[in-house]
Amino acid sequence: MTSHPYQDLTPAQLDTLGPEVRRIDVRELDEFTGPLGHLPGAELVPLGTLEEAAASWPREQPLLLICRSGGRSAKAAQALARGGFQHLYNLVGGMLAVREQHAPQG
């Protein structure tokens, strides 16, 4: 068994996720709308409100947790795992890594 209850996903693996995976961005609003932007289809659920918001979500639905660098999203994934969610993904490196991957090379 892995050491944590979620699967780490790199920005390069985002395309492998199906449409059934909900994208949950746990940053604050000013970050979500800020220079780093957010993933298409991502829902803003700041970390401080996550457990309350997730109380009504189906436990079997796969969730991708996103933040700026991967730290808050890892905490979010752990909290959701404790809440009974079974299919959790953490975006390693967060939006910083996504932007870096899509930055023009040269």
Automatic annotation (TrEMBL):
Pfam families: Rhodanese (PF00581). InterPro entries: GlpE_sulfurtransferase (IPR050229), Rhodanese-like_dom (IPR001763), Rhodanese-like_dom_sf (IPR036873). Residues 17-103 form the Rhodanese domain. PANTHER family: FAD-DEPENDENT OXIDOREDUCTASE (PTHR43031), PYRIDINE NUCLEOTIDE-DISULPHIDE OXIDOREDUCTASE (PTHR43031:SF1). This is Rhodanese-like domain-containing protein. The lineage of its organism: Bacteria, Pseudomonadati, Myxococcota, Myxococcia, Myxococcales.
